[in-house]
Design a protein that fits this description.
Structural class: mainly alpha
Order of helices and strands: HH
Number of helices: 2
Largest sheet: none
Oligomer: single chain
């Protein structure tokens, strides 16, 4: 159960990162460099958190022995 919740949290964070990246793309495309930049920063942090959740879940849910 913990494994499923960990992967679900990672996928949820990836979805949030994709939404932030989309907003950043729209900001850059609309000529709003400040909006594009800061949403890119947010998307990057969310992607790092998502990868940490996915890799951490994979590592800590392995069977030992």
């Amino acid at each position: 159960m913990k494994k499923a919740l960990g992967f679900l949290a990672g996928l949820g964070l990836l979805a949030l990162a994709a939404g932030a990246a989309r907003t950043a793309f729209l900001g850059w495309g609309g000529g709003h460099a400040d909006v594009g930049f800061w949403w890119t920063v947010i998307a990057s942090f969310l992607a790092i958190a998502a990868l940490g959740a996915l890799v951490g879940t994979a590592i800590h849910s392995r069977k030992t022995g």
